[in-house]
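Tutorial, part two.
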Amino acid sequence: MNARIPLLKAADIGSRQVVRIGLWWSRGQLAPGFEAYNAGFEEARELLTAAAGRHPATVTVYDAVTEDEGLDLYEQSVKPSASPGESSWWDYRISGVFGSRQHPGCWTGRAVPLLLMHFDGAPAPYAVPHEERREHDGSHERQVRTILDVLRMLNPAEQERLFGTQLLPGGGGG
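Running the prediction step on this input gives:
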């Protein structure tokens, strides 16, 4: 019998080294109605674009994602990393972020940009944005984790290495 590997938590990000980062988005495709998922995207895109110039083997930015490419990304990378069941590795929810129940993945990399972060020792990429389920006063609530949120969660040494600066928790670089 296979032992279940514990899900990795967002809090684990600060203790891991980034191996590879990919950002997929489409110019002119960010759509109204997705503001919660796309908050801070321009700042994150600028940081990642500059990082890709400094570290092209580690950071890649794709700025023209077709619908078919987005669906492939969703099925091959996003869904296996977060879906319930034996294939999930990270503790978050993606349904409703990158598509609908009838059309899963249809917004991946287009209306909603996708960041895939590969960390040392992590068996699957960390897909962002997503929703994290939290218990609060006996009820469950969901918190959206954006691309910029996750870049700010990297440990200070990783931020310096990738972006040349440390990111402030509630604002831009230092």
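DSSP finds five helices and six strands in the chain. In part three we will examine how such features are distributed along the chain.
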